[in-house]
Specification:
Elements: H1 9-18, H2 25-35, E1 41-42, H3 43-50, H4 57-69, E2 73-77, E3 83-87, H5 93-96, E4 100-103, E5 109-111, E6 135-138
Parallel strand pairs: 4-6
Antiparallel strand pairs: 1-3, 2-3, 4-5
Helix pairs in contact: 1-2, 3-4
Length: 144
Amino acid sequence: MSNQQSLSANESREMLRAAGLRCTASRVAVLQHLSTADVPLSHAEVSDVLVPQGYDKSTLYRCLVEMAEVGLLSRLDLGDHAWRFEMKESQREEDADHPHFMCVDCGKVSCLSDVSIPLPKGEKTKIPGEITEILLKGHCVECQ
């Protein structure tokens, strides 16, 4: 995965309590696993790691969805019919989201945390609603 440090069990429990969720072993395991990921992970990718450790696949799915609903995780729909989940970077709304890149050949997804895409603000903009995700598609270095 990444060289990020995993959340401790206590840190995970504190986050769950603050979000109003019970501190189950499955929720703690999901938070700890996602805290080390440097890309958004699908339910299948989370399950591949946690099911062999004794966690139930359907319980893991419910955990992911519930934690996204309370704002602990971001749930991304990148157009390939598989939701991906990642830890929110910040609880401040303006810092919480970043664009993603998806390779149209291999399907690999990358976070573009250091990329800023300025959006016009004000009454003169032609944006018909609130932008919640920015996805760039193209060919990754390996597929070029």
